[in-house]
Design goal:
The protein has 134 residues and is of the alpha/beta class. 16% of the residues lie in helices and 34% in strands. It has two helices and eight strands, in the order βαββββαβββ. A four-stranded mixed beta sheet has the order 1-4-3-2, with helices on one face. A four-stranded mixed beta sheet has the order 5-8-7-6, with no helix packed on it. A hairpin with a 5-residue loop joins β3 and β4. The radius of gyration is 16 Å and the shape is globular. The mean pLDDT is 89.
């Protein structure tokens, strides 16, 4: 008898920890165009938590903690590799990001799907992929 599937409906949010809360907040608001849903400070943890909605409806939780460890490698560290954001117009995204001061890598083509994509990094070096959906 097959095991029933988990009753999941989608991704609720993605969470990131930043070493520089103000710098990361500015990046996600000004460069990626996120909207603030909620912001709180937890005294007992000396930690901010910023709930954001990225264009397209993706919810992102941005945390600050005192002295978080650095990411071991880019992007081949064990665990989550990167955040991939879908777009119907990669060229327009790259143009807007560059105008906002970001530096996306040169556009590449996925050898398996034929789709175009690029990467950029947030201020902590977190890899963010922009993937053009056909």
């Amino acid at each position: 008898m097959p095991t029933p599937p988990l009753p999941l409906s989608g991704v609720h949010h993605v969470a990131l920890i930043t070493a520089d809360y103000s710098r990361a907040k500015r990046f996600y608001l000004d460069v990626l165009g996120a909207e603030v849903l909620n912001e709180s400070y937890r005294v007992e943890r000396d930690s901010y938590k910023l709930d954001l909605r990225l264009p397209g409806g993706i919810q992102l939780e941005l945390f600050s903690f005192p002295a978080p460890p650095a990411r071991p490698s880019y992007p081949e560290a064990c665990g989550w590799r990167h955040l991939a954001l879908a777009t119907a117009d990669l060229d327009a995204c790259v143009k807007l990001l560059e105008a906002r001061g970001a530096r996306p890598e040169p556009i590449r083509v996925d050898a398996l799907t034929g789709s175009r994509f690029t990467f950029l990094s947030d201020p902590d070096g977190t890899p963010i992929e922009l993937y053009e959906q056909k």
